[in-house]
Structure to design on (147 residues):
């Protein structure tokens, strides 16, 4: 009996001919009928998964950097319940986590070279967040302690 078991791992990748997304278990593309080499399909699927993970991590990085402003705003309310404490703790946690995650992103995915608009956006996001955090850390190191 041919087919997929529950334990088999099906990965996806773009067809080398038509660029439609197909899975590695196919022998030919269902869109353009191009024959699929299983070894090439596995390599393409691994690369596709890595690029998707890079895009996902860059999205998390952007969300974390944006959340820093929310916690910074909460710090303005030091005498309202625990909001000031929450703002302070959250802000400083993210000011430690965002640079570390940015460094991790560049070490893990910075060497990828691919012509993919999603990855180009992810790279730009990691660059902008990294520069923003770097500037903030320079301000802190040089005595800018307004907040």
């Amino acid at each position: 009996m041919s087919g997929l078991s529950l334990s088999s791992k099906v990965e996806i990748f773009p067809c080398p001919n038509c660029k439609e997304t197909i899975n590695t278990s196919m022998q030919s593309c269902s869109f353009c009928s191009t024959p699929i080499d299983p070894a090439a399909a596995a390599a393409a699927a691994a690369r596709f998964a890595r690029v998707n993970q890079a895009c996902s991590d860059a999205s998390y990085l952007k969300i974390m950097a944006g959340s820093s402003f929310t916690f910074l705003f909460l710090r303005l309310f030091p005498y309202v319940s625990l909001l000031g404490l929450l703002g302070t703790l959250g802000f400083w946690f993210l000011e430690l986590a965002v640079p570390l995650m940015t460094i991790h992103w560049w070490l893990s995915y910075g060497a990828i070279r691919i012509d993919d608009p999603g990855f180009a956006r992810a790279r730009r996001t990691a660059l902008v967040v990294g520069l923003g955090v770097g500037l903030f850390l320079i301000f802190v190191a040089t005595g800018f302690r307004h907040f």
In short: The longest helix spans residues 38-74.
